[in-house]
Amino acid sequence: MAAPINPSDINRIQGVYPVRPQPPAVGGYEGVGEVYSVGAAVTAFSPGDWVIPSPPSFGTFFNFLFS
């Protein structure tokens, strides 16, 4: 639903942010998405739920903008 671009995201892409993930890495620290469907064994989420990426530094630019 949303994946903002913040200064920390640009710093991560530049390689100057204190947290440096191993390449290949996806930019983006923050975002929100919506669950569209779940498997039969999933009980914690339902379609329509809003979710945030976890663990931190998951990489929201690819996951939310291109999925």
Automatic annotation (TrEMBL):
The keyword Endoplasmic reticulum does not apply. The keyword NADP applies. Residues 2-52 form the Alcohol dehydrogenase-like N-terminal domain. GO terms for biological process: fatty acid metabolic process. GO terms for cellular component: mitochondrion. GO terms for molecular function: oxidoreductase activity. InterPro entries: ADH-like_N (IPR013154), GroES-like_sf (IPR011032), Mito_Enoyl-ACP_Reductase (IPR051034). PANTHER family: ENOYL-[ACYL-CARRIER-PROTEIN] REDUCTASE, MITOCHONDRIAL. This is Putative trans-2-enoyl-CoA reductase mitochondrial-like.
